[in-house]
Design goal:
Arc Repressor Mutant, subunit A; elongated; 3-stranded antiparallel beta sheet; Membrane-bound Lytic Murein Transglycosylase D, Chain A; 195 residues; two-stranded antiparallel sheet; mainly alpha
């Protein structure tokens, strides 16, 4: 019986080592020639600021072969949901407009007045109304195009570097005086972004 316990303990230790090695492989990146912190942050969908901080980078200098630790990112299902929102909200808008829509959701995620999950932010209701029209009219269920996914990746990498927009609206269709009273941060295409 004692021998069986030792064997089980040895197997558990071996599994832990193998799992730790695999987990480490998923959270590190070996820099290749021509890569930048920006391209790496976009590749993994992590904020550039967090990537620099985690790796104690005071500047943007990288060296081929250098190993970087990669901070955690949002789940694939959250990326998909965010891309579907971007697709539904910003059809016909420029790439910059799509990135700005995704950034609003990420800024809300970090703000104390909003829910703490992507799904919570996107499906939030206030005063009987959904925060985003596509949730109410069902277009959130439409499949997102590749550009919307790219916009989400860009917004994730850009996270924390923008002007802090928490809202956006189309001035031709928005009826809320409260929304119009918010400080405008930028106008991109048909959308006004504000905080």
């Amino acid at each position: 019986m004692k021998k069986l316990k030792h064997l089980a303990l040895a197997a558990a230790c071996l599994s832990a080592l193998l799992f730790a090695k695999d987990a480490n492989a998923q959270t590190t990146h070996t820099v290749q020639k021509g890569e930048t912190l920006w391209t790496i942050s976009k590749k993994y969908g992590v904020p550039l600021i967090q990537l620099k901080k985690l790796n104690n980078k005071q500047n943007d200098r990288l060296f081929p072969g250098e190993r970087l630790r990669i901070p955690p990112t949002i789940s694939a299902s959250d990326k998909d949901l965010l891309a579907r929102l971007v697709h539904a909200e910003a059809k016909g808008e420029s790439f910059a407009g799509k990135v700005a829509v995704a950034t609003v959701v990420l800024n809300r995620l970090a703000h104390p007045d909003f829910p703490k999950t992507i799904k919570g932010v996107i499906y939030e209701r206030s005063g009987g109304h959904y925060a985003f029209t596509p949730v109410q009219n069902g277009t959130i269920r439409e499949r997102a195009d590749r550009e919307s996914y790219r916009a989400v990746e860009e917004a994730l990498a850009f996270r924390g570097l923008g002007s802090g927009s928490l809202f956006f609206y189309n001035p031709k269709t928005a009826k809320s005086n409260w929304l119009r009273s918010k400080q405008v941060t930028v106008v991109i295409g048909n959308h006004v972004f504000a905080k």
